[in-house]
Amino acid sequence: MASLLLRQQRVSALGVSRILQAVNGDSFRLQPESNCRTFASFGVIIRNYSSGKGTAKFDFTDLTRPHTWYPNARKKQRKVFLHVGPTNSGKTYHALKRLESSSSGVYCGPLRLLAWEVAERLNKARVPCDLITGQEKDEVDGAKHKAVTVEMADVTSDYECAVIDEIQMLGCKTRGFSFTRALLGIAADELHLCGDAAAVPLIQELLKVTGDDVQVRSYERLLPLVPLEVPLGSFSNIRTGDCIVSFSRKGIYKLKKKIETGGKHLCSVVYGSLPPETRTRQATMFNDASSEFDVLVASDAIGMGLNLNISRIIFSTMKKFDGLERRDLTVPEVKQIAGRAGRYGSKYPMGEVTCLDAEDLPLLHSSLKSASPTLQEDFLENAKLSENYFFANCEEMLKVAAVIDELPLSLQDKYLFCISPVDMNDEISSQGLTQFAENYAKKGLVRLKEIFSPGSLQVPKTHSALKELESIHKVLELYVWLSFRLDESFPDHELASSQKAICSMLIEEFLERLGFQNPTSRKLNSLMAKKRRQYI
C-alpha cells in the first residue's frame, strides 16, 4: 500500500499534510512555509475555513481521495510508463534517455547519490540540470531540468517528462509518503516510473481514479545472474571483483581485516552511516582497475545508488537485525543485493552470487527463484482511509517532538525540526539537534562555533573514534540542512559545508590506513591529505 505522511503537533497528536480544495476552488496548503497551523487529531474533527467568498467544511479524517490534493497534476492527461524489471535490466536507462530528450523534466530518486549521478549525466550530455537535495542546491544557468531527492519534488511546476526511480519504495513505512506524493502530484505530460514489478498492481489501482494512461514495460536482466552451488568457504577463495556483504558495521570491519590479513587484497568499504561523499570515493577506488582496492566489503547500502563493477556477491549471512529482531532476509532484499553482481558494459558483465556458508545457500536459491510479493501494508483504522493507503511511520518524528515540544518555538518551526535529517538513535546527532533548537529558540541565531570548534577534527585512530567522527558529520549535515531553510538564523553554511567535507576526507584516510599498507597505499594517503588542505 502507498503511504501518507502524518505531521506531529504534539507527541500524542497527529495530523495529515494535504491540499485543501474548497468548494469555491480556493486552495489552502498545509506546508512548513504556510501560515496555516491547524492540524487534525484522531476522531472526526471538522473545521471551518473562510475564503472570503464563503465557508467550506473539511473533514480532516477523510483521507479517501488523496489524488484530489494535487490539482496541477489532475489538470493533465498524464501518460504513465512503468519500467519494471530486475537490477541491471536497463529499465532506468530507457527512462533517463527520454528525460534527456525532453524540453523540461525532473528526476526524483531515493538517494542524493542517484540525484547527483543523473545531474552529472545530463550536464555532460549538454542538458543543463539543477541538483536539489535536502543538503545542497546546485543551480545551472538556463536549466529546465532538475535532479532531486524525492522529498524535494516540486508538485507545483509543469514538466514535459518526469522520472521517479525505485518506485516500489512507496510501500516504505518511513519514506513511502514522499513517493506517493510524487506519484500523485507531479504535473508532467509523461511520468516514467522505474522499479520492481511487485509495485505494478498497486500503482495501477492508485491511478485508476486519476485519469492517467498507464502502460507497463517489462525488462529482463541484460545478462544472467548465476547462483553458485558451492559456498565461498575459505577467505583464501576471495578474488578480485568480489563483494562480500555484512549487515553490521562491526561485521564489515571484521571481514575487511580477515581478507586483508591474507595479503592478497585490499578492501574498500561501503555502509549506510558513512558520509555519501566517502561512499562514492570508496566505490570509485573499487571500480578503478588500476587501484589496489580490488575487493568490496559492504552492507545492503549497495542495493541502490552506486554503480559498481562487481563480479560476485557473497552473503556473509542471510540474516539481519531490522531494529526489532534478527530475521531472515526477505525476497526483495536478496534480489536487490544479489542483482548488483555483474554490470552490462563493465569488466564483469555476467554476475555470480553465493554465500560464505553452505547452510545459507538454500535460502539464497529459493529467494532468487521466488517472485517478490506485491506491495501491501496494514494501516490505522481510526481515520477514514482508502484501502490502498497506509499511514507513514512517524516514530522518528515523535522522538524529535518529545525533545523540542516545550521549547518556545512556533508550530511551523517545531515541524521543521521534526522533519530534519537527524538520527535520534545517535547520541551526538540528537545532542546536536537539541542544542540547535535551544539556541534558535533563545536567540533566533545559531552560530556553528558555539557547539563546534573548526580545526579540531583529526584522523581517527580507533573504531570508536571513527564512529564519533561519523556522528559529527551527521551534526554538520544537519546544520547545512537547517541553513538552507533558516538561512538568517543558521548563517554559517559555508563553514559547515567545508568542515563536513573535511570529515569525509578524514574518514577516508582512516579507511586507507586501516588496511595493510604498501607504498601505493601511502601515496593515496598523501593525495587525501592534499585534498583535505583544500578545505582548510
TrEMBL record:
<keyword id="KW-0547">Nucleotide-binding</keyword>
<dbReference type="InterPro" id="IPR050699">
    <property type="entry name" value="RNA-DNA_Helicase"/>
</dbReference>
<dbReference type="InterPro" id="IPR055206">
    <property type="entry name" value="DEXQc_SUV3"/>
</dbReference>
<dbReference type="Pfam" id="PF22527">
    <property type="entry name" value="DEXQc_Suv3"/>
</dbReference>
<keyword id="KW-0347">Helicase</keyword>
<dbReference type="GO" id="GO:0042645">
    <property type="term" value="C:mitochondrial nucleoid"/>
</dbReference>
<keyword id="KW-0378">Hydrolase</keyword>
<keyword id="KW-0809">Transit peptide</keyword>
<feature type="domain" description="Helicase C-terminal">
    <location>
        <begin position="218"/>
        <end position="386"/>
    </location>
</feature>
<dbReference type="InterPro" id="IPR041082">
    <property type="entry name" value="Suv3_C_1"/>
</dbReference>
<keyword id="KW-1135">Mitochondrion nucleoid</keyword>
<keyword id="KW-0496">Mitochondrion</keyword>
<dbReference type="GO" id="GO:0003724">
    <property type="term" value="F:RNA helicase activity"/>
</dbReference>
<dbReference type="InterPro" id="IPR001650">
    <property type="entry name" value="Helicase_C-like"/>
</dbReference>
<dbReference type="InterPro" id="IPR027417">
    <property type="entry name" value="P-loop_NTPase"/>
</dbReference>
<keyword id="KW-0067">ATP-binding</keyword>
<dbReference type="GO" id="GO:0005524">
    <property type="term" value="F:ATP binding"/>
</dbReference>
<dbReference type="Pfam" id="PF12513">
    <property type="entry name" value="SUV3_C"/>
</dbReference>
<dbReference type="InterPro" id="IPR044774">
    <property type="entry name" value="Suv3_DEXQc"/>
</dbReference>
<comment type="subunit">
    <text>Homodimer; in free form. Component of the mitochondrial degradosome (mtEXO) complex which is a heteropentamer containing 2 copies of SUPV3L1 and 3 copies of PNPT1.</text>
</comment>
<comment type="similarity">
    <text>Belongs to the DExH box helicase family.</text>
</comment>
<dbReference type="Pfam" id="PF00271">
    <property type="entry name" value="Helicase_C"/>
</dbReference>
<dbReference type="Pfam" id="PF18147">
    <property type="entry name" value="Suv3_C_1"/>
</dbReference>
<dbReference type="GO" id="GO:0000965">
    <property type="term" value="P:mitochondrial RNA 3'-end processing"/>
</dbReference>
<dbReference type="GO" id="GO:0045025">
    <property type="term" value="C:mitochondrial degradosome"/>
</dbReference>
<dbReference type="GO" id="GO:0016787">
    <property type="term" value="F:hydrolase activity"/>
</dbReference>
<dbReference type="InterPro" id="IPR022192">
    <property type="entry name" value="SUV3_C"/>
</dbReference>
<protein>
    <recommendedName>
        <fullName>RNA helicase</fullName>
        <ecNumber>3.6.4.13</ecNumber>
    </recommendedName>
</protein>
